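Worked example 4.2. Below are the chains of a multi-component assembly; read each line carefully before continuing.
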Amino acid sequence: MAVVNPNKTHLFENDDEDGPISFKRSSASMKSSRPTPSKQEGSSGSAGVPVRTSKPVAPNQQKNGVSASASRLLHVKPPSSSPNHRPSGSGQPNSSAENSSKSNSIDKSKLKRPLVKEENSDDSDDEVPIGLRRKVEEKKLKRVVEKADDNDNTPLAQRLKMGESSKGKPSAKNVVKKSPASTKKNIKKMKRKVKTKKTMKNSQFSKTMKVPPGSGGGQKWTTLEHNGVIFPPPYKPHGVKMLYNGQPVDLTPEQEEVATMFAVMKDTEYATMQTFIDNFFTDWRKILGKNHIIKKFELCDFTPIYEWHLREKEKKKQMTSEEKKALREEKLKQEDKYMWAVVNGVKEKVGNFRVEPPGLFRGRGKHPKMGKLKRRIKPSDITINIGRGAPVPECPIPGESWKEIKHDNTVTWLAFWNDPISQKDFKYVFLAASSSLKGQSDKEKYEKSRKLKDHIQNIRDNYTKDFRSKDETKRQIAVATYLIDKLALRAGNEKDDDEAETVGCCTLKIDNVTCLPPNKIQFDFLGKDSIRYFNTVEVEELVYKAIEGFHRGKPPGYDLFDKLDTTRLNAHLKDLMPGLTAKVFRTYNASITLDDILHKETEDGTLLEKIAVYQRANKEVAIICNHQRSVSKSHESQMTRLNEKIDDLKAQRDELKVDLGKAKKGKPLGNDKDGKPKKNSPPEQIEKKIAAIETKIEKMEMDKKIKEDLKTVALGTSKINYLDPRITVAWCKRHEVPIEKIFNKSLLAKFGWAMDVDPEFRF
DNA sequence: CTACCTACTTAGTAATCCCGCA
DNA sequence: TGCGGGATTACTAAGTAGGTAG
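Applying the procedure described above to all three chains together yields the following C-alpha cells:
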C-alpha cells in the first residue's frame, strides 16, 4: 500500500474490488512478478488493504434473518458495499445498529458456515449440534471430493500428484481402492517421500533446534521465588430479588451470583445472543436444581438486579476522589506481595497474579460456549511452579491447599490452572512484559525475523518456482507461503468444534477465496478473534491459476489447501531457514515495513511532523496485519461536532474576507453579530487573521481525516507485538524525537532491552 | 505420522486514568 | 470543574508452535 501516500489513507473506504495490494516490500522486494510494490507512488492505488470489517460478535448481524444457506450463496459475491467495518461495536449492544448499517452486509454466518451445516441450519441456532456434526461430515465431504477428483475432473497428471502427496489418510486409501491409477500413484508417492526425506536430511537446517540459542539448554531460570496468586473475594450476596413470572424469587447466594452475572450484562450484545442465553441458562439451572420454580428463561426478569447494579455503579462514581484513592491504596497494599517475583536474584514484576474471577464466558464471534459459567477457581485447581529452595507460597485461603507444587526451570510460568470452560486449556501466570525473561524472548523473536531478511529472496524464488510444480502439495505450500508472505496471513492451525469457526492461511475454505478474472483474488474470512479479513488482491498469474486449480471439484466449506496444515508448512519453512515458522513472516513484514517507511519518509521538520510520519508507518503496518478495533460509540457524534466546528471557522473566514474587501476600499466593516459596528482594522491585520483561520481549518480537516481513517484501525497491537523497538529507538535518536513521544510507560518498560541500540540500526 | 498436551505470544475490549476545555 | 474523550492499563480469549506418545 502506498503506504504513505496520504491520499490513500482511506484504505478502508472501499477497496473492495480493486487494486493490487501493493504490499510494501522493502528493499528485498519480491521479484518482478509481484504486483506493484507499493512504494511507487503512482501505483494505482489504494490498495486493497485488508479490510477491516466486521466484528463477529455482533449478534444481530449474524442472524439477520438470512438463512444460512441463502447467506452462503450470497457470500460468494459479497456485496461490495462497504467492506470495511465491523459492525458491531465493542460489544455494545446498541452500537450495532448504527454500525451495521454501514457494514457490508455480509453476514458472518455465511462466512463461516461450511456447507455442511447448512442443513440444520438456520440461524440462530447453530450452536452445538452443528459443531458436533461437523467433523464427521467434513470428513465425508473430503472423501467425496477426493473421489470426484479421482475420477473425473482432474487431469490425470494432476491427479497423480494429488494422490502422492496426500497425508496418507483417507485419501490415500481411497485412491488405492478405486483409482486405476493407484499403483502409479503409490509409486510416485513413495518416490516423493523418499525424496523429501533426503532433502531434509541434506538440508543444513533440517534439525530443528530444540533450544533457541541463548537459552541455556532449555533452562529458563536458576532460582525463582514468588508468592503465588491472589484470589478474588468471595461472593457478597446483595439480596435483590429478580422476578420470575412477575413474582420475586428467593435465590441462594450461589444462585444469585450467577443470576447477577447475567443481569449485569444486560447492556451488552451478549445478552441478546441466543447461544449465550442458552448456555447461561443451562448452567444456571444446574445450580438452581431440578425442582426450582425457575424453568423458562422467558419468564425471568433480571431487571431488579440490573438496576441494583446500576445504583452500585453510580455510588462508586459518586465517591470522592479521596475515598477512591484510599480504596486503591488498600487494594495495592493487599496485592503488593503478589506483584513481584525474584528470578535469578532479580526482582521482577508478575504479569497476572490475580486469579480470574468467576463469570460468564465471553467468547468472541460465534463461540459455541459463550455464556457458559466460568466457575470459581480454587487453590486446589492451581499448580505452583517455584524454585527448589524457595519457600512455597502459603495458600491464601485458609483450610485449602494448592493442587501441586512443581520446580520446573525449563518453563517460565509461576502457576497455572485448567480453564474451566475448556478443561484442555490452561491459564498461566507469567512474569510481566517488562521482565527480562520476556524481554529476552522478545529480542530473540526479532532477531529471528531479522534473519529472514537474508533468506527472503531465496524463499521467494523458491516458492515462485514451485507455483508450477507438478506436485500439488508443493504447489499448495508455495501458494500458502506466498499468501503468508505477501498478505501477512496467520498460519491457520486446525480448530476444534467447540470453538468459533475462524480460519488462517492453511485452513482457508473454498468459499473464503474467490477468483476474479483475470488475476485477482478476493479473500473474505474470519480470522483470529473472528475479525473479518476482506481484501482483494492482484496476484501473479501462476498463483491465480494455482488457486483456481485448488478450487476445482471442491464444494464450499472444503479446505482450499487440503494437502496442507501448519505442521507441514512449518516443516517446509524450517528447511529454508532454521527456526522459520509462518508467524515469523508477520513480524518480518511488519518491522521491515516500519524501517522502510521511516527511512524513506522522515524529513527534517517539526517534531509533530516526524511523529506524524511514525504514525502513518504504524498505521500501514496495522493495516497489513489487519489489526482492528471497533468504532467507538461516539464516533459519529464526534465527527459531526468536528464538522460543525469546521463550518463555523469557514463562516468566520468568509466574513473576514468580506471585511477585507471593505477594508481595502476604506469602507466601514459593518456590524458584528450583536449588531455593534466592528472596529476597523488595517487590511494586513485582517489578512493575518484569515491566514490563521485557514491554518486552523486545515489542521482540523487533517485531524478529521486521520480520525476517520483510524476509526477501525488499532495501532497498539503492532507496536506491542510486531515492530522491533530498536527501529523506533534508533529513529528517535537519529531524529531527536523523545522516545516518550512514541512509547508510553509500559512500552518503555517492556522494551528496556532495546534502548541502547545504535542510532544507525537497520532491521 | 497424527493427536494430544503444553507453553507462550498475540489480540480486542472493558475499565480506568488523565488532561484540556467550555 | 465537570466532563468528553483519548490514552493507558487490566483482563482474558484466541492464536502459534514445539514436543511427545501411541
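Take a moment to check your reading of the output against the notes. Residues 89 and 297 of chain A are 26 Å apart (CA to CA). Residues 1-49, 52-215 of chain A have pLDDT under 50 and may be disordered.
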